[in-house]
Structures are given as structure tokens and as C-alpha cells.
Amino acid sequence: MHLARFQTAADAPPQVGLSNGEGGIVALGTAGDGLTLSDLLHADDPAGRVAACPSGETFALADVRLLPPVERQEVWAAGVTYKRSQVARMSESEAAADHYDRVYTAARPEIFFKSTAGRVVADGEPIRVRSDSRWTVPEPELTLLVAPDGRIVGYAVGDDVSARDIEGENPLYLPQAKTYDGSCALGSTVLLAEGPLDLPATTITLTIERDGATAYEDRTDLSQMKRSLEELVAWLTKEYSIPDGAALMTGTGLVPPDQFTLEQGDVVTIKIAGVGTLRNPVTRG
């Protein structure tokens, strides 16, 4: 069951809909009732709440504007949760290599603030390379939608765009490397969490196109994660309340080679099997 937020016009209020699997989206609730995605996801029984909603008009996806799956929720991210990420982070900064090595094996994971809801880039909108970065990459990540009580209630596709040269210069620059305009993108559809994911079958594919050709492509799957999804949520909420819920990116296992950086005009596509697709053009500066 895939849910999405959408608008039928630029000045129309956001609505919530259910994908019909045939290139359309069925509006849920009644016009003007103020139903939000959070209302559904944060219910005691989200699937039951969706089933109880009256169905409205069906729209073709081409006729609506899909919105990010966050309303007031903060976006957080976890790092060094895959072996490949550990190796990449160690290589980008010799001075801090030992820190990344130790956090991979430590009980406490790396968790950092990524974005406010209003700054999240939607599917089809441009992600951005900082003007002062010479080495920036996309980081494809399964993103968890978390209810205020800590339940994992949905899954989305995320891109934690990162300036690796800035972070590599000094680990204390991580907020500047990770949190800036155009650095956080989320796919528009949310897979309702009606049961645990099949980790090996949940593949993540990253494709970067440049000048009409594939410049980079690779894939991994969730079985390569060192930490469980529940563990990451538990650490996020351990001493931090999330009254509006939260989105939590879970780390990346796909890192382009060190000589590769995003350029103006590139197109980044991230596909997570069973969850969705996120596609964004790249701008710089």
C-alpha cells in the first residue's frame, strides 16, 4: 500500500492519496476535510485508518504535483551503517579515519540532523552541489517514517546529498557538508509498514546519468546494513522526543568512486525495490 501527498494545482491545498498501481492516485477523505498524511501514518492502525477513509476522485499522476512525504517532521540521518560507507568515510579523511572505523563497530551509531520539512526536495525537483564543494555525491538511503511513539510506520526513498571534500577536511564540518539548500530529497510515495521488510530482496539501485549516458550505476540491498532499522530509531528517540514524528535516513551502501563528483545537468535516479523511485536533476551553486 503506497500513499502520497499531492496537489492538483499550485494554489490547491495538499491532499493525500493512495496509489492504484496503474499510474493513478485515488484521493482519500473528502474535499476540505484537512486530512493529512500524518493523520494516517500516526494512527494506532494506519492500514485500518486508510481503509476507513472514503475514496474520492482518481487523478493521473501526470496531472498532479507530488509532494515530499513530510509535513512538519524533521529529517534525521544515520551514517556509517554499511561497510562500504565506513571504507569511503575513512578514505575521504585520513585524520578522522579512526573515528569512522570506531563508529562502525561502536554500540552508539552516528545520527545527525539533515533537514526541516520545508527544505526537502521533491521527486523531479533539483538537488544541489554547494558552490564551494569540488567533490559531492548522492547517497541513496532507505528512509523510515517514524510515528511520535517511535513506531516505524512507513518507508520512502531518500537522497542524503553530501559534500565529501568539506567533511573530509574536518569532521566538525559535517553539518556544512550535509545540511544546506538542496541537499535532502525524498521520494513522494510512502510504502505503509504493514510488516517487516525482506532485507535481501529490498535492493537499492543508484544510477547517475550525464549527457544522456550512464556515468555511474551500482546496487546493494538492506541485508548489507550492520544495524537494524529498529536500533537506529531507538537511538534517535532515546533522549529526543518527536511530537510530530520524524523521517530517518538509514545510511548508504553505495558510494561512487573517489574521482567522481556530481556536475551541473546530471540526473540522479534511486530505486528501492517495493518502495519507490526518486529522480532529481542536479544544479550547482
TrEMBL record:
Please state every residue range assigned to the domain named Fumarylacetoacetase-like C-terminal. 105-282
Q: Which GO terms describe its biological process?
A: small molecule metabolic process
Q: Which InterPro entries match?
A: FAH, Fumarylacetoacetase-like_C, Fumarylacetoacetase_C_sf
Alphabetically, the GO molecular function entries are:
isomerase activity; metal ion binding
Q: Which superkingdom heads the taxonomic lineage of this protein's source? A: Bacteria
Q: Provide the coiled-coil residue spans.
A: none
Sequence similarity: Belongs to the FAH family.
Its name, as the record gives it, is: Homoprotocatechuate catabolism bifunctional isomerase/decarboxylase
Origin species: Alienimonas californiensis
The gene is: hpcE
